[in-house]
Design goal:
This protein is an alpha+beta fold. The chain is built from 5 helices and 8 strands; from the N terminus they run αβααββββββαβα. The protein folds into 2 domains: about 40 residues; about 90 residues, no CATH class.
Length: about 170
């Protein structure tokens, strides 16, 4: 009796079971921002203020969370993000080594306002956070045309998600 094989994302990549690749480009693992020394001083002051507040209110878990967030922010600024391969295929999309079949994607929308914002957003059906992918120099009209064959477009969304906007404004 043949064993049923549980395919991982790497298996899809090797076996090529995801169909024809329509678009492919590299995206950074996370956004990097130019931060001034004033940003770092402000972050330290706010973090220390929150830690002092949490000590006075005996909320030590909050103090630990503030310390961890500050540590992660400084680590992100120290290391360069890895470049991930992004592909739009016949069966779904790949981001790095993660495969998202079209059945798991609710819809998409594109915000194209160069030079500030050039992104495509995928709203997932699960509780996972939405994906935001930098378009770079790819033609958003061609991408939209191809994705409309597989997904619904959210025409009411004409702005970045709150998470994306906060990341940009606060340079996180």
């Amino acid at each position: 009796m043949a064993e049923e094989k549980n395919l991982t994302t790497e298996d899809y990549l090797r076996e090529g079971d995801y169909g024809k690749v329509f678009f492919e480009w590299q995206v950074p693992e996370y956004m990097t921002h130019e931060r001034s020394s004033l940003w770092y001083i402000g972050t330290i002051v706010i973090s220390l203020g929150l830690i002092i507040y949490s000590i006075f209110t005996a909320n030590f878990l909050f103090a630990l969370i503030v310390i961890l967030v500050a540590f992660i922010l400084f680590l992100k600024s120290y290391y360069s993000p890895a470049n991930l391969n992004f592909q739009i295929t016949e069966e779904g999309i790949f981001l790095g080594n993660q495969f998202f079949p079209y059945e798991r994607i609710k819809n998409f929308y594109i915000i194209y306002k160069p030079p500030r914002v050039k992104k495509i957003f995928f709203n997932l059906k699960s509780f996972a956070p939405d994906l935001s992918i930098i378009i770079h120099d790819a033609n958003p009209l061609l991408i939209r045309e191809k994705l409309l064959q597989y997904l619904e477009e959210d025409l009411e969304r004409d702005h970045q998600s709150l998470e994306d906007l906060m990341e940009t404004l606060l340079k996180l």
